[in-house]
Structure formats: structure tokens, C-alpha cells
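Entry 12.
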Amino acid sequence: MDKIHSLTGMLDLYEDGDSSDLSKNIFETEKRIKKIFSNYYLKEIRTPALEDTDLFKRSVGDISDIVNKEIYSFQDRNDKSISLRPEGTASVIRSVIEKKLDQSAHKLWYMGPMWRYERPQKGRYRQFYQAGVEILGYPEGAPEFEMISLVCSIVEEFNIADCTIKINHLGSQENKKAYCDALIKFLEPLKKNLDEKDLERLSRNPLRVLDSKNEGTQLILKDAPSLKEFLEPKSIELLEAIKGEFSDVCNIEIDYTLVRGLDYYSGFVFEALSSNLGAQDSFLGGGRYDDLCSKLGGKDLPSIGMAIGIERFASLISDITPSDKIVSFITLGSTLEPKTYKIAHRLRSLNKNIILDMQLSDSSLKAKLRRANKNNSEYAVIVGEEEFNNDTVIIKPLKDELKEQQTVSIDELFEFYKAL
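Predicted 3D structure (C-alpha cells):
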């Protein structure tokens, strides 16, 4: 009988894998990102994996690659077209509208799997994970500074090398229309040099031509009108203010050619890039989308959001040390184990900030200490026959060779553990 394999581009993630396994970085990355979200007083939202296909056609744009080539859609038993979500923002806005929460402000975060049918490659999979933030109900200004502050906090927390945060402003509807007219006028005589995809973008959403991956198109665009010429002074001032305030924290660059690949973006947009990712160097991006809520049938709701590709982001981190403190509890002798479980239970209740690894195997002390070191444990608590009979334990430091192990009473162990 043939073995059953996972589907192409869909990974199994195993936290207890080898230290070189990307899974370890992914799990630790998610833990730390959640802590940052909590520090910014963001509230979690969870939306279904499956949505009405029309939601993404109306939000992401029916000429986008996501809808035309990458979306996982199928007919259900009622012959309704439903899709696995390819991104998170549209589902969040749909939920806010449905729950009649679109007239109040919200600061939300989400984390979970998304799906896109594309060629699997390093950092890009058909099932992938995103962490996202949506700040809803606040007009342009303060939320932009809060969002860039959040992005800088993430870059700082993980010490991402060679990272640049690019920012731009797409302008008002009037600015955008004037620029698109100028771009069409510039490209019209050169249409024969554009590929089919860029020709379609030019006819449906000219601004998206700036996002072309075609090298020939990018060469042509070097002589195109600059978006900056069409922006209002307040838009340029916002970009310069953000760069001025955060350039001492992160490398921030104003890039007037930057546009985002989804149709709902308007106003301020941004991306975080690292040269360590190769040609497709973006791992985080977002921007303002003030019109999406009303476009989907809700109220006017000024909004800004961003998303992080967890796999791409985690691949940037070569050696991530777990943020949690771990203590290994080691018993020597199977007859001791039932009685020592109660001690371990008490320790866990005394300090919930520490992870206690109760080693369940009957292997040697040497093997158990090897596991404790592999788990990056700070200490090993060791109970043998002699210690058990004397109501004592051994506390062995594993990270500081200058500290000596000590034998303490059970009550002293509790005080020690509580203070960690």
C-alpha cells in the first residue's frame, strides 16, 4: 500500500524537531509576536478559514493574481462558491460589519493559516501562516505612527539584519486619479513593450503597473512621472515626519514607487524588507484602506493594517533562543516518580512563568541532563533515592558553570522556584 503524503506546499510543523528545523523558529516567533501585540493593547480576533468567494473578489480585486490564479475555491453542496482565505483583512472587515461593530474603533490582531496556490519555494508555501494587525476607526495620522512603532518593535525584538522599512503615500482619490491619468498618457505609446498582465493592470488599475515584476516594465517606469509630483503637501509631510521620528530606531526609506499588491489600499503604505531573503525580499507589509468597509456594505471606517509572513520572517532568524525559562525535573528510580509528581504539580502552581519539563523516561542521569541541556533548561531539579528519603532535592545550574549545585529542602526548593 502506498504511503500517504502531505499535499504539495503544505508543511508539518513540529516544535520538538531538530534545532536546524524552521519549525522551532516559527513557534518561538509566534510566541514573541503575540507578546508584542499584547504590549500594544491589541485584542485578538479569529475568523473562519472558509469565506464566500465573493468577499475576496470584492476586496482584494478580481484582476489580482490572488483571485485569478492563487485562490483555493470550490463549490459546496449547495453549489455556492467558497474559498480558503488567502489573506486576513477582508475577513476581519466582514466580521466587523456582520456584528454591527463598524461605527466604533478597534485595535485587533490575528494569527493563523492562509492558503494560496502558488509555486512552493523557500519561505513561500501553499498553506502559510500570517500574523496581522488591523487598527479600525481612526483617521490618518496617529495610527500611522503607532503602526510603524509596532513594526520597529518587531524588527528590534528579533534583531533583523539588513532590514529596511519602505514607506509611501498613494494620495487621495483625486491625487490618485490625476497620477493614473498621467501614467496612462506616458505608457500609452509604449504599450507594445508591456506584457499581457501589465496591459490588463493599465486598463483596470494603472497604479498596479508600478508593482510589476517584469524587468522590462520596470526599466520603462524609470522615466515615468513620479507619484510625489501629485501628492498633497500633508501626505509628504506625514512621510517625512515618520521617517524623522523613527530613523534612529529602524532604517526607514521613503519610496515613491512603492504600491501594495491588493486593490483596497489607499493613502499610507509600507513594507519591511531584508536582503537576506533574496529577490522576493519583503516579509511584512500593509497600509491604509479607508474605503474597504463601505465597499463591502458597511459604514465608512478609516482603517490601517499590516501582515507578517511568519515562515519568511522566521527564516531570517538564524539562531533564536527560546524566551521562556525552562527547568528540568529529573527523578532517578521509577519507584520515586508517583511521589515526585506532586512536587512538580506544586512547583507549576507556584510560578506560571516558568516551564517545568518533567522527564518521564527511565534513562540515566547523564541522558536526562543531556536532554535538559538540549531543551535549553536553566536548572535541573534532581531527586534520587537518598534525596527522597531525606526530603531534599539537588538544584543543578546548567547555564552558569561558576554556580555550584546545591542540596536543599523541599520548602527551600519551593521558595527558590517561586523567585525565578
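Annotation: The two ends are 53 Å apart (CA to CA). The domain at 22-171+231-315 is CATH 3.30.930.10 (BirA Bifunctional Protein; domain 2).
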